[in-house]
Amino acid sequence: MEHPALPRTQVVNFNAPELHQLALALSRAHALAAYVRPYVDKGRPWERALKSLPGIGPAWNASFGRRTLADASLAALTREAGVLPDLCAAVLHRASQLPIALRHRATSRLHRAVREAVAEAAGRDIAGSRCIVAYEGFALPAFRAAAATPGVLRVLNYPVAHHRRRRAVRLEENEREPGFASTWPDFDDWPPDHEARLDEEIHLADAVLVGSRYAGESFVEAGVDPARMRVVPYGVDLDVFQDSERPAHPGFRAIYAGQLTQRKGLAYLLRGYRRFARAGTRLTLVGSVVGSERPLRAFAGSFEHVLHQTRPALADMYRASDVFVFPTLIEGMPLVVLEAMACGLPVIVTANGPADIVRDGIDGYIVPERDEFAIADRLERLHRDPQMRWAMGRSAAARAREFSWQAYAHRALGVLAALADPGLRAVA
Questions:
Q1: Alpha-carbon gap, residue 13 to 24, rounded angstroms
Q2: Is residue 412 scored above 60 in pLDDT?
């Protein structure tokens, strides 16, 4: 992964896997100044002790232990901040006995505390850095410090579409689907100055790094110079998500993974599946309910709900399914689509983020947004033609292999090198 003129870079992250992969690649290229983020399991003595305790160990391994940082060089350059509110938020998120709305409010406050702690820690010391790459909402202190230091690049990682596009789509959707509005909470849990903060981060950034053309276009629509946009598709862990032996099963199984929210087109998925459903078919929804589960009650009996899974368990669920459905309304680049494809599933998606990955009619289908009839039709096509389903699944797995995390890191490092030396061309 050789890139000339890589700037010595500080990476500021919340929990974005793409920034973790970038930090790891920079560390291996000896170009990482620091990696600032919330809690990560470095295998310290107290962490190893917790993992060995009866009762506590399995719970730790299933939650915090999943944030393992095995690379010793990266661990040495990692500075944690906001650890206590981060751990508290993770505990609350899994406290299923508490009302969803209460958990949402409490975890939102804790996540804001994490953000402030990480952002302030990153901004306190940028000495030795010639580039700052930071997660949206976490960048401002470091970007302000970098702006006052000649020659320090500022790159904003934005994992979803521009916040004004998000607001517009949410308001429109809540009018169209008021029954599902509670699953797409408004921005009331953001501090009053949050959007102004994001605007300043974008203004200060030399470049904005996004995962799809759809996300990039939302920034141009908001007035950002297209020359400042950098589109680098995200990756998939091909060691975990792979098209290995698939267990035989009767019937036809559709699966969705992600937060259960109208932002992902939940109402259209449920109605589309209900139009298609017949004996021997099943829909599984994997993920946590956002806001309120009340809208789902009208569809009781139409789906099976499974809470968030470990990555190996989710890969097994994909391989035990026949199609992945993800009719999202607004995204950056959804990793779950790549993960399902890597496991050999044809997919049914909208163009709002996945269009850079999915080839319509080859790896699955791209359907119009908000179209339950199109979802039902594509489910029917795949159900009645197992041979086509198999062929699309093979194509999807081959396509996913083009988007490894190694490929993402190579392209992202190329972007940083080209920003540091405009005479270079970024890797396409």
A1: 12
A2: yes
Let me know if residue 416 belongs to a domain.
yes
Rounded CA separation 136/276 (Å): 39
Domain that holds residue 360: 252-400
Question: Which pLDDT band, with edges at 50, 70 and 90, does 185 fall under?
Answer: confident
Q: Has residue 297 been placed in a domain?
A: yes
411 and 323 both lie in a single domain: no
Q: Using CB atoms within 10 Å of the CB of residue 35, give its burial: 0 to 12 exposed, 13 to 18 middle, 19+ buried.
A: buried
User: How would you classify the pairing of strands 153-157 and 131-135?
Assistant: parallel
Band of residue 428 on the pLDDT scale cut at 50, 70, 90: very low
In this predicted structure, the answer to whether residue 142 has a pLDDT above a threshold of 70 is yes
Beta bridge pairs of residue 244: none
Q: What is the pTM of this model?
A: 0.91
- In angstroms, the CA 186 to CA 398 distance is 39
> Residue 348 is which amino acid?
I
CATH of the domain at 354: 3.40.50.2000
Q: How far is CA 164 from CA 178, 198, 383, in A?
A: 20, 10, 39
Cα–Cα nearest to 185, from 100, 92, 312: 100
pLDDT at 3 over 90: no
- Residue 12's pLDDT band, with cuts at 50, 70 and 90, is very high
Do residue 256 and residue 330 come from a single domain? Answer: yes
In the block, residue with structure tokens 């650890």: 83
Dist. CA 111–CA 121, nearest whole Å: 15
CA-based torsion, 96, 98, 187, 295: positive or negative = positive
Residue 334 falls within a domain, yes or no? yes
Is the four-CA dihedral 170, 226, 129, 22 of positive or negative sign?
Answer: positive
- Within a domain: 245: no
